[in-house]
Amino acid sequence: MHLDLSGSETRGAGTASATVTATLTEGPDGTRVHVRTDLDVTGRPAQFGRGIMTEVGDRLVQQFADRLEDLLRAPAAGSAGPAPVMSAAEPEAVDLGAAALPVLLRKAAVPAAAVLFAVVLVRAARRRSHG
Prior knowledge:
Helix content: 40-55%
Number of strands: 3
Number of helices: 2
Order of helices and strands: EEEHH
Distance between the termini: 70 Å
Structural class: alpha+beta
Strand content: 25-35%
Strand order of the largest sheet: 1-2-3
């Protein structure tokens, strides 16, 4: 499967375009899907940097895979087979901020803890020198 995708921020000038190639192979526990994505991002989202964008992209692909799996496993009304995949009239918006927030928080946890530790140390030293 080969997809050429593009989108833009609803509030801003940022854009994203991607070429997604998915290859399906039979595996012992079901079908395996290998996904390769070439992503081009402009605007504010591009400021996140490559490492964070890779993790955010992985989260978005996982969300897509989870939703697709749910659709394929859910029985259609009055049928024993999988539900048909329905196309939406308008594409669903992806909230990149919501997808990036957990990644950013995880990346910021160690520096934030170090700053907090330094502040506590400085306050303790001040109290000791004054008291």
